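Aim 2, interim progress. The first record below pairs a target sequence with its structure tokens.
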Amino acid sequence: MKSPIRIFRVADKSMEPSLLSGDYIFVNGRSQKINVGDVVVMRHPNKNIYIVKRVREISNDKFYLMGDNDGESEDSRRFGALERSKLVGKLIFKI
């Protein structure tokens, strides 16, 4: 059975000061309940990469995501809300 916990390395400054480039984050892929304010990992809609963003709004099972560092973040302001199918998981802790 595949583990629901995945580890990712933050690769940019888009979530500073909450998450720094180089931080490792543990993500629960089985989190069913996602709330506004949660930090999530999702698949980028136009690139073959994962992104770490904060949920700012949830509507019709879509997530509007933004980075904490507005000037360094490519987020829903550019690519729109993302479907739940793009969700990898919810942040549970960082190191």
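The second target in this work package is listed in the same format:
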Amino acid sequence: MSFKEMLHAILSFCNNVEGKAALAMRRDVKAHYSTHFIFLHKLRSAIWQETAPFRVGPPALGGPGSYVVVDGVFVGGSYRKPNIRNAATEKALKKEATKKGMWIVAIRQRPRKGSTDKAITIVEVFRHEKDALEWIVSRIIPKTSVHTDAESSWGDLRAVLRRRVVPHKQMFFRKGVSTNSCEWLFSRIRHAARGHYHRVLGPYLARYGQELAWRDDHRREANGQQVERLIQLLMQTPRSSDSFCGD
């Protein structure tokens, strides 16, 4: 692609609030599918760099006057129903498909009302939700107030963090405790997986998740601001580590 076509592709990427598939990008910028597939993953690599300071080093999320929300969503597990309906066969197919699914776990730092701080979200992929505990603790400043649902996987967080729980079987929020900000993100991920990307499982699942988290964090910014922000990230991103850099 030429430089102008790249800029056009970045604009098209930012204009679509629920994601942009490589096949859909071909309608906007004429190029081969594989060209757009690689280019879009380079954009996701740049987005990944924005939250890099919160992924490495000492815990950087949370702290005095702020709180974080932790939750997970199961992605995958789809299967093709047989032509002749059979309950036992469908149950076996569903069980087998579930083995291929993964959990996207999100940590969202939510600013207090009246604060000028912006929301920060990082995501990671795990085989089981409970596997994320060590990662969660390593990213959040100790004694931060952490909002979760009543899932038993998060029980051990109380030992090192100030865990506050909302039982979703009874209510959506309780006395200022809510995981709705993560649920908004997960709704965006589900819609993108069904209606835009159709298949996001694989080695780049975390990048898809971070892309959609980035879109949600900056959803109130104008398109021009998003394009400028993404170009700045691209200029600061080092050589790709995902085999998208040629021989």
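The chain has a mean pLDDT of 87. This observation will shape the mutagenesis plan for the next reporting period.
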